[in-house]
């Protein structure tokens, strides 16, 4: 039996790097040798016992890139040795939502690294239809950002962000920073970030924020001062705080839009003034992950240098030190991204 090294989450807060069987692949699957896998905020939630507590032990990791090591007998157009990324969102393929390309709403949707074993390992099994070929010239650290960049690509589409629109990004952590960069790419102006961490606030300015607010008590006045007294066209909540969601509605102009991105607790709610929604024609829409065309567009943007990637690719940790990497991320808020490198 062939084995590999994998970081297995055995109990909440505790990884063990183990020798486990290399995942089986069917005739329509491929086996990816993982070159790099980023740690996402969702992974930190998983590490703390959310989402998968009833399915442990489990191998997380969904921001991965690698090289094809095995190709199923019914797979065409892909070759061993090819560099790839993967769309982690697997739908049933035949339900109402899949037929409408709303795979994220498929009742049977499963995500690699969240619902099934993922990329914190030397190898991961992926249905071939989820594979996207990647250029040989791109660095693994850059390719491993395809999934998180796809998330902000989709959020921008959902919000219909575009030229000259004023945007507030609440939270300039890893995803907030990418939202800022995405808004700059679509021509939004001004871009206003709200971030308490001095280091992340500095990175937000470098990423393209025109204004960075570090005192939340001043954000309403500052936002209005930079938007002609109206409020922002779009506010993106990227943290997952019910209190910030409530504040977001105060920051938009009449006719403005709240982009719901930050994941809250399952029972969290926010009060909305319905009459304001009606009379001012305000709106709110959620966006949870990138899929399909979002992945292709994210890969294109990254491989053509449209994103500042240095703050996301500088911290690379060997697989055997994954426990300390997660502990560090929980304790040091100024770090935007840690990527895991399995043994070759």
Automatic annotation (TrEMBL):
Pfam family name, one: ADH_N
GO MF term set: oxidoreductase activity, acting on the CH-OH group of donors, NAD or NADP as acceptor; zinc ion binding
Cofactor entry: Zn(2+)
InterPro entries per record: ADH-like_C, ADH-like_N, ADH_Zn_CS, ER, GroES-like_sf, NAD(P)-bd_dom_sf, Zn_alcohol_dh
Ranges of residues in domain Enoyl reductase (ER): 13-340
UniProt KW keywords: Metal-binding, Oxidoreductase, Zinc
Domain of life: Bacteria
Family of the protein in this entry: Belongs to the zinc-containing alcohol dehydrogenase family.
Name of the featured protein: Dehydrogenase
Organism encoding this protein: Novacetimonas pomaceti
